[in-house]
Design a protein that fits this description.
The protein is of the alpha/beta class. The chain contains 15 helices and 14 strands. It folds into two domains: 207 residues, P-loop containing nucleotide triphosphate hydrolases (Rossmann fold, 3-Layer(aba) Sandwich), CATH 3.40.50; 210 residues, P-loop containing nucleotide triphosphate hydrolases (Rossmann fold). It binds adenosine monophosphate.
Length: 438
């Protein structure tokens, strides 16, 4: 199957070809004709599947076909809702990339930056708005946007938006949209809450699904290093130095842990930056750019900060701490070994995390190869300690009680954990607030 067989216009095909793509991914091959036909869509697809172009390309086409409609002040025609500013920026970049031969205007709308410049752009008029829910509502409240002209709505990474507590914001936004519109819902998983949202929103939707990355790509080599809690930093430094690792994405459980580790790596002569929700928008973008351009060797991130970030085919992902939820492990290591490239996922596991490791292996349905570096053998006298979840943890499943209105609001990064979830029970005690892979 080629892009040319999907019914896309020449101007869009040219932009796709300019970008170097000729073969649609499975989600694109399935979603594009459905959207072009004007149908509602419910799509099960994660980041990395090519889902963005799956909705951006046909939306560009549908909007550009109505070429006699000139842009109206404050009144966009298509709205994409995304959970994080990073994702909003990425989607917007795709809109720009694939729409470069078209006359459509678009803008991202997200918190953490001044609202004035966004208002000016909306006032001048755009066709497509890619927004995080909280900041979009800020514009609504200031009468800086009129949603009554929306013809096409996309909920991107709907499950994550719900995880982050955006359900009330989303419902409020939906109530402001015209009844008659085309709606597309993308979600990695379909919980009851997502299905409930879909039922109210979608009209006789086509349903497409691409293989979930429940099972990690074959190309990812996984291994576990057993090591004592206090010696993880030194082991990581050793692994990076000895093996000359480059472009290493390291996951920590907390923002504070990410900062401390990045600093420690820096002191050891390894260029490293931390990426998490307490960083300013500028800092986050810079950290990401430097990492992509290989100026920074190691990016230390929390789950939420790393989510949706378009860094592909990384050679190394390190779980400095195992995630509380096994599915997050799969998601994390899915950042390496994409598109046929080989990748390595390394986990540093201390005695506190043995139960988490067993849970992960249960989900993977296999054991992960174990290694010990001489000199870093675990001390058998060290006892397991409960894994506390400090304030500001980046773990996704516990980050915010679903339904917590205005959590995060896109202004200052991901939401803080709900009070009740701050203290996790003894190690491995998980708050499964809804299953992701049903
Ligand atoms: P997404 O799932 O939309 O975040 O896309 C994941 C990655 O796949 C992005 O880096 C895209 O640029 C890339 N991509 C999207 N469509 C294609 C395609 N048809 N062929 C190759 N790569 C693609």
């Amino acid at each position: 199957m080629k892009f040319t067989e999907l019914g896309l216009d020449a101007a869009i095909l040219r932009a796709v070809a300019d970008h170097g793509y000729d073969t649609p991914t499975p989600i694109q091959a399935q979603a594009i004709p459905v959207v072009l036909a004007g149908r509602d869509l419910m799509a099960a697809a994660q980041t990395g599947t090519g889902k963005t172009a799956g909705f951006v390309l046909p939306i560009l086409q549908l909007l550009s076909q109505d070429s006699n409609l000139s842009v109206k002040r404050f009144k966009p025609r298509a709205l994409v809702l995304a959970p994080t500013r990073e994702l909003a920026i990425q989607v917007q970049e795709s809109v720009k990339t694939y729409g470069k031969h078209l006359k459509l205007r678009s803008t991202p709308i997200f918190g953490g930056v001044g609202i004035g410049p966004q208002t000016r752009i909306l006032k001048a008029g755009v066709d497509i708005v890619v927004a995080t829910p909280g900041r979009l509502l800020d514009h609504v409240n200031q009468r800086g946007i009129d949603l009554s002209g929306i013809e096409i709505l996309v909920l991107d990474e709907a499950d994550r938006m719900l995880d982050m507590g955006f359900i009330r914001d989303i419902r409020k936004i939906l109530s402001l949209l015209p009844k008659k519109k085309q709606s597309l819902l993308f979600s990695a998983t379909f919980s009851d809450e997502i299905r409930g949202l879909a039922t109210g929103l979608l009209d006789n939707p086509a349903s497409v699904e691409v293989a979930r990355r429940n099972a990690p790509a074959e190309a990812v080599a996984q291994c576990v290093y057993h090591v004592d809690r206090e010696r993880k930093r030194d082991l990581l430094i050793r692994l990076i130095d000895d093996n000359q690792w480059h472009q290493v994405l390291v996951f920590t459980r907390t923002k504070h842990g990410a900062d401390a580790l990045a600093e420690r790596l820096g002191k050891a002569g390894i260029s490293a930056a931390a990426l998490h929700g307490n960083k300013s928008q500028g800092q986050r973008q810079r950290a990401l750019e430097d990492f992509k351009r290989l100026k920074t060797n190691v990016l230390v991130a929390t789950d939420i900060a790393a989510r949706g970030i378009d860094i592909n085919d990384l050679p190394h992902v390190v779980n400095y701490e195992l995630p509380n939820v096994p599915e997050d492990y799969v998601h994390r290591i899915g950042r390496t070994g994409r598109a046929g490239a080989s990748g390595e996922a390394t986990s540093l596991v201390c005695i506190d995390e043995h139960k988490l490791l067993r849970d992960i292996e249960r989900v993977l349905k296999r054991q992960i190869e174990t290694r010990v570096v001489p000199g870093f053998e675990p001390d058998p006298r060290i006892k397991a300690e409960p894994i506390m979840k400090p304030r500001g943890s980046g773990s996704s499943r516990t980050a915010a009680a679903p339904g917590k209105a205005h959590a995060g609001h896109g202004r200052s990064g991901p939401p803080q954990p709900a009070k009740s979830s701050r203290k996790a029970p003894a190690r491995g005690g998980l708050h499964h607030s809804g299953s992701r892979h049903q």
